[in-house]
């Protein structure tokens, strides 16, 4: 069957393996974050140290992408994926040892976060080998949908683990899930040779990163992925103060938090199911604007129902990322794909983390609804600035 549809992509055996492995790894990672956050707070009573259990999950991504990403090109993708997942599993098993000091746990989180972008780069490289260029963006979309769904379910899973088992047992179960993910990849995918990479691991990783950022087309694709994503998370970051200003409670906070993720899933499914590759390229920039322009309505200080609807409808525009994935594959040199994909994954994680922090800082000086409106304006401007390179290209609408 052709890989021009989600169904066609899902029928590729190796893709199904990567899909299952992604769900297992996300469940494991979220369970660890929740368990450590609760465990550290119980031991120290410090909200700051507790929050580091979440922050240190993505901050080291830059380190891994800069210094280790060439491993995703140098070695077979299957080998890299299995090795990095086993490292993460071993880290979790060390955390599960009763009495492990808090500083040691935090350092172990740094190790896990450092190898994460290498895994992501190798997984995307494997995806490009397994699927055709037409199927690649659909496969990436399905993995994103799986990750987002597993992350939402992972919070419930982690909470249930904390209720049913002690922290060491919960961490041991998370480690077992990560090892199982590695086994699924190792047994279910084909070993393909790595690419010839000159220089040492660190030197080639750094050179690949600089090369990607110096290439105008590739840099534009990466920035069109990172900057809008940093602004798109502002409503989630401010869900609690937004709900408070509207007179709502925890239920409204939950609705504001889920409106965006639900909308993005629906938007990606719609873009993949209703538009062909040419249609997705044609509507990439208009859809990107749709993701942000509705947020500007928050300047009117909408009520709860309108606010949730605006966030959900705007998130439908996130279907633009399917065309962006196709552009990323087209712009990334084949010999440095692993490094480019690692950099893209790390940059996305870091930009979203920075977006959360910046939204909170802005809300110290402005009402939350105005901060969200500013995010809408900033997002639209970033789409115009970083998307202008693609105006006039075949399949991309010329009106910005």
From TrEMBL:
Compartments it resides in? Cell membrane
Q: How does it sit in the membrane?
A: Multi-pass membrane protein
- CDD domains linked: MFS_MefA_like
What species is given as this protein's source?
Nocardiopsis alba
Q: Which residues cross the membrane?
A: 17-41, 47-68, 169-190, 220-239, 251-271, 283-300, 306-328, 340-362, 368-387
Q: Does the keyword Membrane apply?
A: yes
| Broad class of where this protein is predominantly found | membrane
Give the taxonomic lineage as stored in the record.
Bacteria, Bacillati, Actinomycetota, Actinomycetes, Streptosporangiales
Please report the stretch or stretches of sequence annotated as the Major facilitator superfamily (MFS) profile domain: 200-400
What name does UniProt use for this protein? Answer: MFS transporter
């Amino acid at each position: 069957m052709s890989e021009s549809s989600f169904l066609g992509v899902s029928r590729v055996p190796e893709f199904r393996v990567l899909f299952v492995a992604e769900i297992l790894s996300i469940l494991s990672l979220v369970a660890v974050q929740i368990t450590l956050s609760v465990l550290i707070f119980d031991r120290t009573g410090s909200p700051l140290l507790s929050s580091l259990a979440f922050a240190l999950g993505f901050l080291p991504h830059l380190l891994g992408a800069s210094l280790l990403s060439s491993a995703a090109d140098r070695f077979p993708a299957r080998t890299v994926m299995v090795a990095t997942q086993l490292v993460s599993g071993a880290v979790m098993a060390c955390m599960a040892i009763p009495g492990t000091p808090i500083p040691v746990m935090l350092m172990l989180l740094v190790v896990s976060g450092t190898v994460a972008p290498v895994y992501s780069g190798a997984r995307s490289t494997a995806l490009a080998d397994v699927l055709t260029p037409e199927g690649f963006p659909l496969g990436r979309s399905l993995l994103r949908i799986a990750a987002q769904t597993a992350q939402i379910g992972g919070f419930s899973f982690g909470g249930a683990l904390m209720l049913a088992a002690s922290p060491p047992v919960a961490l041991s179960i998370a480690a077992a899930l990560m090892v199982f993910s590695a086994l699924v990849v190792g047994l279910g995918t084909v070993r393909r040779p790595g690419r010839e990479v000159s220089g040492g691991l660190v030197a080639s990783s750094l050179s690949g990163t600089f090369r990607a950022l110096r290439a105008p087309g590739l840099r534009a694709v990466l920035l069109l992925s990172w900057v809008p994503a940093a602004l798109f998370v502002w409503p989630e970051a401010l869900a609690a103060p937004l709900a408070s200003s509207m007179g709502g409670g925890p239920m409204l906070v939950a609705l504001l938090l889920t409106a965006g993720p639900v909308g993005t899933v629906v938007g990606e499914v719609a873009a993949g199911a209703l538009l062909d590759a040419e249609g997705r390229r044609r509507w990439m920039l208009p859809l990107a604007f749709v993701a942000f322009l509705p947020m500007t309505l928050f300047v009117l200080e909408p009520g709860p129902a309108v606010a949730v609807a605006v966030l959900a409808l705007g998130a439908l525009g996130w279907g633009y990322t399917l065309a962006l994935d196709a552009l990323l594959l087209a712009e990334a040199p084949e010999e440095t794909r692993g490094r480019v994909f690692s950099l893209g994954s790390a940059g996305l994680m870091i930009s979203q983390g920075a977006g959360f922090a910046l939204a909170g800082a802005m809300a110290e000086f402005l009402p939350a609804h105005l901060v969200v409106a500013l995010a809408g304006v900033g997002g639209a401007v970033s789409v115009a600035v970083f998307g202008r390179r693609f105006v006039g290209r075949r399949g991309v609408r010329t009106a910005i």
